[in-house]
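Appendix C reproduces, verbatim, an entry submitted by the partner laboratory led by Prof. M.T., so that reviewers can inspect both the input and the predicted structure.
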Amino acid sequence: MTHSRGVQHLADELGVEAEHVARAFRTASHAHAAIRAVKYTHLTDEQFRRLIDNDRYTIAVVANLAMRFAGRTEDARLLTDIYKAASGKTAHRPVIRRGVGTLRDHHDHDVVQQAIRILQAAGLPPIETDGTRALRDGFQVLPGCDELPGWVFIAPDPDCAHRGGFAGGRDGYPTVMKWAGWGVIPEPLAEGLFAAVHPDHRDQPFPS
């Protein structure tokens, strides 16, 4: 069966068969007017990108269903948890202790904290440090410089390559941040860091 490029785009992003995504759209459209309002079978790549950016709730519902149809229940929950963390819709905003997920000096950096919450929602383990040494290995988030507001740089945890699923592997980090609506540079930088830019800065990621 031939699917629209929009459906295929989401299927590629989720790592599932396009038929699962198409079925998810059909199922969700019975309950969600926003999905009925768009002719997803005719969306261009650009229209579908706008839908993902502007109505992430609808896409989160469809993605959750698609993962379930693919038999990946844990990843279905993960997608929902990432969406909630990125949109601030969690029932209780988790408090990040100083030295968790970043250096203690960067603890109060708002964009860094947002990135840590998203990565933790994806089940990725953060570094824990007392300021002089690491108490537990894990990912570490660093803020961009003053010339790059909204950017963060992510050092993956040492065990990431051994994990599977949506957030598994080294590529799991940019995959999670992209699903959360952030702009990402998918290839790691020379130091092995991944770069991501907050949604508020995606339209002008490199201000002059």
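The helical segments are 5-14, 18-29, 33-37, 45-54, 56-69, 73-87, 110-121, 172-179. Additional entries are available on request from the coordinating office.
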